[in-house]
Amino acid sequence: MGAGQRSTTPTPGGNDAWLARSLASVWHPCTQMKAHETLPLVPVARAEGVWLEDFDGRRILDAVSSWWVNLFGHGEPRIRAAISAQLAELEHVMLAGFTHRPAVELAERLSALAPGRLGHAFYASDGASATEIALKMSFHAWRNAGVADKRRFVSLSGSYHGETLGALSVTDVAIFRDTYDAIVLSNATVPTPDARLARGGRTPADVAREAGDALEAFLAANHATIAALVVEPLVQGASGMVMYDASYLARARELCTRHRVHLIADEIMTGFGRTGTMFACERAGVAPDFLLLSKGITGGFLPLACVLASDAIYAAFYDDDVARGFLHSHSYTGNPLACAAALAVLDVFRDDRVVDTNRAKGARWEAIAAPLAAHPKVRDFRRCGMILAFEVDSGRSDFARWCFTEGIARGILLRPIGQTVYLMPPYVITDDEFALLADRTREIVDRS
User: Fold this and answer.
1) 8-state DSSP, 429
2) So what's the pLDDT on residue 39?
3) In this predicted structure, what is the pLDDT of residue 395?
4) How far apart are CA 180 and CA 88, in angstroms?
5) Cα(429)–Cα(276) distance, integer angstroms
6) CA–centroid distance for 204 within its chain
């Protein structure tokens, strides 16, 4: 079916019925619910590939991979089959005192793919949980080493690492943090190496060097109390797809090593091929002390997160004293179904040579989007791997909401961040589908 065509598959009630029931019972995330008095929810009945379909049969192209999780589109048959096969064997068992094949195999394969010696996988449910785990592990590792003063963290300005209380302490996006400031621990920020600051003859590498100088000065003065630096490698997502030069990561690694500060790489969004390599850290040739993974890890099928920790971190907890162990858990840690889905994702990467294919595909996307990039209202058009982003010079104070509404009316799902529009569709989108997405996005920019 093409965009806008209707399915003949019967559905249990149309859009209006499901809208009413949802508004009466479901509290939606990241949403002012009162806004839905005038901005209708988008009910989704089914999905396949890059297309969502509502209960009335209308199709919408998922240009944001459903919050960056659906790497291979909706309903990828190999992932679905892996979950089904695992369901016939073991749906769940607690991971405290027990183990199972999918958790072991996934830990081994992720460790083999990750940069450096990240030999130990601690499972969680979502990205914010992964951040919480890494912060606690970092502090506790230093405490076990007899360095109890290292209890603060530093992140980049504009950083986003999740919305639980610990994660908010290293998040610097006002809309998420300000309300809860009174109950959030105070940590530090250092300047972002945002490549958009490269003006007046300065290059992205110059901006990265200057931001690195600021980090060096901060760590020189504060390293005795800093447990870890937390970074989103190459792309800061929630602050507007801020992209920066890979040299900053290499400098950060060197400075963290010099000043005995852990490096936490939050690859919850950038991991699994989004930036042109399996993990964004590879672009800088660095290995962090912690690698945080979620979102695309199961291809969008089931919730799962993983913290990969270095051998040195793991060794800091290995002791006869129970209190020196890492006593953190949740009931569904390492769920076998989710781990089976993640193993299938890794199979797809291997069998389809996804990273190599994506390099060529990302370049084609950029070429297809050239007329959009040249639009007089578009500025700072940029690409990092499979992420394209730009700002729109619009006088609309409600641009993000307006753009979302205009997109849905045209059969495309866009979710701008302020004035920033980004395109992050599933990797399986065809060139023709991407051209449709770029053309309809340009129509919206025309009207902005």
Assistant:
1) -
2) 86
3) 87
4) 44
5) 16
6) 23
Full strand arrangement of the beta sheet holding 420-423: 378-384, 387-392, 420-423
User: Which residue carries 């209380």 as its tokens?
Assistant: 165
Q: Are 400 and 391 in contact (CB under 8 A)?
A: no
- Helix 77-87 and helix 336-351, axial crossing angle in degrees, nearest 10: 150
Identify whether the C-beta of residue 228 lies closer than 8 Å to the C-beta of residue 289.
yes
According to DSSP, the β-strands at 387-392 and 235-236 are unpaired
Question: What one-character-per-residue DSSP string does 87-129 give?
Answer: HTT-S---SSS---HHHHHHHHHHHHHSSS---EEEEESSHHH
Find out whether 262 and 138 touch, Cβ atoms under 8 Å: yes
Phi, psi of 103 (to 5 degrees): -65, -40
pLDDT tier at 4 (50, 70, 90 boundaries)? very low
DSSP string, 186-228: --EEE---BGGG--TT--HHHHHHHHHHHHHHHHHHHTTTEEE
Burial class, 209, CB count within 10 angstroms (exposed 0-12 / middle 13-18 / buried 19+)? middle
Residues 6+ apart with CB under 8 A from 355: 273, 276, 277, 278, 349
What is the rounded distance in angstroms from the CA atom of residue 106 to the CA atom of residue 242? 31
Helix locations, 15-56, DSSP H: 15-25
With tokens 């908010």, the residue in question is 168
Range with the poorest average pLDDT among 36-45, 194-203, 322-331, 334-343:
36-45
Q: What structural domains and CATH numbers belong to the chain?
A: 15-75+353-447 (3.90.1150.10), 79-351 (3.40.640.10)
Tokens for 230, please give them: 């937390």
Token readout for 195 is 């490549």
Q: Would the CA dihedral through 418, 203, 218, 229 be positive or negative?
A: positive
- The answer for residues whose C-beta is within 8 angstroms of residue 124's C-beta and 6 or more apart is 130, 132, 133, 294, 304, 305, 306, 307, 330, 333
Q: Residue 43, exposed/middle/buried by CB under 10 A (0-12, 13-18, 19+)? A: buried
